[in-house]
């Protein structure tokens, strides 16, 4: 039991210094859980993210806007909102609030 430790998702948030910060929290073959910290960042113009894995993402703190290419749909994200993004779906982060750090948890499988 000595190797079981309690952590807090809001502790030791990395400085964002111009780009989002991705930190692995846990994982094993075929599964990755990470914390993402944003502060006003967005995906570069014209770039689309397309993962080879399914993604389940929850926004715990802050505000964000996600855009999906096929539907040209923008989804506003508030704390507590989560979304499932199937593998291969082109999407991007259009905006994150510059007023406070946005804290996300992403599960890739």
Major sheet: 5 strands, antiparallel
Q: Could you give me the name of the CATH homologous superfamily?
A: Jelly Rolls
Structural class: mainly beta
Order of H and E elements: EEEEEEEE
The number of helical elements comes to: 0
Per the principal axes of the C-alpha atoms, what is the gross shape? Answer: globular
Range of helix content: under 10%
Mean pLDDT: 94
Q: Low-confidence parts, pLDDT < 50 over ≥5 residues?
A: none
SS strand fraction: over 45%
Q: What CATH architecture would you give? A: Sandwich
Kindly identify the CATH topology: Jelly Rolls
Ends distance: 27 Å
| Total domain modules | 1
* Broad CATH class: Mainly Beta
- Give the total of beta strands: 8
The neighbouring-strand order within the major sheet is: 1-2-8-3-6
Radius of gyration: 14 Å
